[in-house]
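Feature request, filed as a ticket because there's no other form

It would be nice if the structure record came with a short human-readable summary line next to the tokens. Right now we just get the raw output. Example of a typical job, pasted below so the devs can see what we mean:
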Amino acid sequence: MDLKLLIEKTAEGLGFEVIDIESSPRGRLLRVFIDKPEGITVEDCATVSNQLTRLFEVENIDYDRLEVSSPGLDRPLTKLAHFERFAGEEVQLRVRIPVANQRNFSGTLRGVDGETVILETATGEQRFAFDDVERARIVPKF
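Raw output as currently delivered:
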């Protein structure tokens, strides 16, 4: 089974959403970012970590270190639903293919229209196909 799918099914079974999964070259370090509507506690991270550790042992998945954490204040937006949920937030967005010689954009997320992400920038409204978004993160407010 695909490692990402395995991790997602396990975390979702415990009541958590997997926001992102990062791995180092050769998969020696696995980072799993989880969330739930009321937020993440240290105990939540420990619960998911313990369950994944047991699962990896049973599935014979080779890794050196597993880190489970919340997505943080600068949380990544990895699913179309995230772009809808965080409409109104300031975000930094990077596209795969340059638009007018530019790949990085900052502005206020306006939401989605079908499969299109809408971003209000200093130069006006920009629209990006969700599949063209390489990465996006919320800009934390302090």
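Something like this underneath would help us a lot:
Helices lie at 3-13, 42-59, 80-85.
Strands lie at 17-23, 29-35, 65-69, 90-99, 102-113, 116-121, 124-129, 133-138.
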